[in-house]
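Troubleshooting log. The previous structure file for this entry was overwritten by mistake, so regenerating from the original sequence record. Sequence copied from the archived sheet and checked twice against the printout by T.R.
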Amino acid sequence: MAPMSQVPDASRFRNFADLARSQVRGRDYEICVRRRAASPIAIIAPHGGEIEDGTSQMARAIAGDDFNLYCFEGTRPSKNYTALHLTSHRFDEPECLSLIASCPVVIAVHGCGGEQPQVLLGGLDVPLRDLLAASLAAAEIRAETSGHRYPAVRPDNICNRGARGRGVQLEITHPLREGREAARLASAVRSVLCSITAPA
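Regenerated output below.
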């Protein structure tokens, strides 16, 4: 186990087991799981806490009391991204996999760089991706579904490892991850998710 002073390079980790050999739950990271047995939807933040700031809060706002929630949260005093950012196609933390295995709808919330407020949508659930993009656009939030660097089309991307093997990834720039803008974004996403789970 690496001492706290030695910061491992998470980009070298092959999987969560590698990360767990050098980082300690309760010291370097925490895991939050909230199950909603009646819901087919899981909202996950695999780079939450201090890894990609604001993503845990966004995931919680989208999930509310209605949808399943998973957050992997960096709690180190520094270097959270360096030590804990396990890339999405290698993120196989067991509690996350257990939660999403029974969920046909998976939304992964991430933070990305960029000064312009926008959401870059990817994932293999193209119909849901496009519904979310339309809802965001209606809320006057710029949403891009193609031509960006986060397509999230690998089957082993964590967003695509739910019950149907397809999900949606939201990469959100920093201006949309705080304050009123964050609340507006969460509301736009929730409106779609609530509509697809509403009784016919």
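The beta strands are 29-34, 41-49, 68-74, 105-112, 118-122, 142-144, 168-173. Archived copy saved in two places this time.
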